Structure to design on (470 residues):
């Protein structure tokens, strides 16, 4: 019993590695799970009483539970047999694919990450780059929305920072679940997005099984009153203006609506604008197809550069990207919208419903377009929109800038001013554009657009076209 046993070094290393793995599985993982479970319970108990829209039990479900519920949903099961028959494949194979797709779609929401880590990251990151501002057409109407309804925040898509600003500005009211595109399917962005409540969307997928599961997940989440953020354009704006509505997610959430049994749907339009859109140069330089061919390494490289820039700005606190603003409109209740149009939704067939969804989508896009705020840089770029070779003295520029601000206010645009002062706003925008090379100052003191940067200047100016009848 006390004799020394000699074993080869490689066997010793294998035993040590096996013991370490057993220790991690038996001790570390349970302790880590217990720690996060306790933190999650504590944060839910802490924040839920103060949220305007309380956290849904569906939101708090584990990822595996959500994937199981989605994969075994009766509506999915009824379609699986038909798809297996059409493809000539075994039922078991199709069910494995269903599980894989369900696991790929559903989020892994973590309240502690969202309201503590994620919120602080968003706040510090956003404030290190921008001066964030928020506007309301009627704050009381937004405050009247309760968690008895399913709320959908409909947003124009200017930048991938939209995720950050929308979550940051609504964190005191609710959590937001949002569809995340393929750009984020790299580590560590993907797990962070899942923990923040994001579900993953392959926007151009033609796989009917995938579309079926995505549709059913969105419907289940809506029925459970999970607040959604939907970028109604479905993609980043390529020219700075608000594009037409893509109706996929909107048709999903309304498909099974019944005023007698379903929670009412509330659409909250939001317009977002920036002094500096981080992706603007890439949006002008590459098409969507060209950008996708760049692959994950291109996205990862740009992501690393962006994080490094944020860390540098965080240290310096320069807020060199200027102003970012989200402007909230009035909520639109689906039941009231249907009643106003004399529509009884359950009586309509699929084609008739889609016609009404097209009308609803167009109205929501119009609402969002009218909510886009005028931050200082887009206003300044608009001065040269119709005459890009124009040269202006400082006094002429000031007169034109003030006149443009007056026109925007007459058009009921939410104007973002520096300390409510137009001269300070012009000074801020001018310094920003001079630093970025969008505007140049000649030796005689006159200002002009750098024609090499004209597409970028027009990109910002286009965001305000809807307010001006020039």
């Amino acid at each position: 019993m006390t004799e020394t046993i000699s074993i080869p070094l490689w066997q010793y290393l294998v035993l040590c590695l096996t013991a370490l793995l057993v220790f991690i599985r038996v001790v570390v993982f349970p302790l880590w799970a217990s720690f996060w479970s306790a933190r999650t319970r504590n944060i839910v108990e802490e924040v839920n009483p103060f949220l305007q829209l309380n956290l849904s039990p569906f939101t708090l479900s584990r990822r595996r539970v959500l994937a199981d519920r989605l994969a075994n949903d009766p509506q999915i099961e009824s379609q699986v047999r038909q798809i297996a028959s059409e493809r000539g494949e075994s039922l078991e194979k199709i069910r494995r694919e269903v599980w894989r797709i369900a696991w790929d779609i559903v989020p892994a929401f973590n309240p502690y990450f969202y309201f503590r880590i994620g919120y602080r990251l968003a706040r510090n990151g956003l404030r290190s780059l921008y001066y964030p501002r928020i506007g309301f057409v009627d704050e009381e109407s937004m405050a009247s929305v309760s968690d008895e309804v399913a709320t959908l925040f409909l947003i124009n898509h200017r930048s991938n920072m939209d995720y950050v600003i929308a979550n940051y500005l609504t964190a005191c009211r609710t959590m937001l679940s949002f569809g995340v595109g393929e750009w984020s399917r790299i580590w560590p962005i993907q797990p962070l997005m899942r923990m923040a409540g994001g579900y993953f969307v392959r926007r151009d997928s033609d796989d009917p099984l995938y579309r079926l599961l995505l549709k059913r997940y969105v419907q289940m989440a809506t029925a459970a009153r999970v607040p959604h953020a939907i970028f109604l354009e479905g993609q980043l704006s390529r020219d700075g203006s608000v594009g037409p509505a893509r109706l996929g997610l909107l048709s999903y959430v309304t498909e099974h609506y019944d005023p007698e049994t379903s929670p009412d749907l509330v659409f909250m339009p939001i317009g977002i604008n920036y002094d500096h859109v981080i992706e603007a140069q890439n949006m002008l330089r590459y098409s969507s197809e060209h950008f996708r061919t760049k692959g994950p390494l291109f996205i990862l490289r740009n992501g690393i550069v962006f994080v490094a820039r944020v860390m540098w700005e965080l240290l310096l606190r320069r807020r060199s990207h200027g102003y970012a603003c989200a402007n909230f409109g009035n909520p639109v209740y689906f039941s009231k919208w249907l009643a106003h149009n004399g529509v009884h939704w359950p009586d309509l067939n699929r084609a008739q419903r889609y016609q009404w969804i097209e009308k609803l989508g167009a109205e929501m896009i119009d609402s969002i377009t009218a909510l886009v705020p005028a931050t200082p840089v887009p206003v300044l770029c608009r001065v040269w929109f119709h005459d890009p070779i124009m040269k202006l003295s400082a006094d002429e520029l000031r007169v034109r800038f003030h006149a443009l601000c007056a026109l925007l206010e007459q058009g009921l645009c939410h104007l973002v001013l520096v300390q409510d002062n137009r001269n300070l706003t012009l000074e801020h925008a001018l310094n920003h554009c001079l630093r970025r090379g969008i505007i140049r100052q000649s030796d005689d003191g006159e200002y002009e657009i750098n024609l090499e940067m004209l597409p970028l200047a027009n990109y910002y100016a286009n965001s305000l076209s809807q307010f001006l009848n020039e």
Observations:
- Residues 376-467 form a domain with the Arc Repressor Mutant, subunit A fold (CATH 1.10.10).
- The beta strands are 131-136, 150-155, 177-180, 198-200, 228-231, 265-274, 323-328, 332-333, 439-441, 447-449.
- The radius of gyration is 26 Å.
- The chain has two domains: 64-371, 376-467.
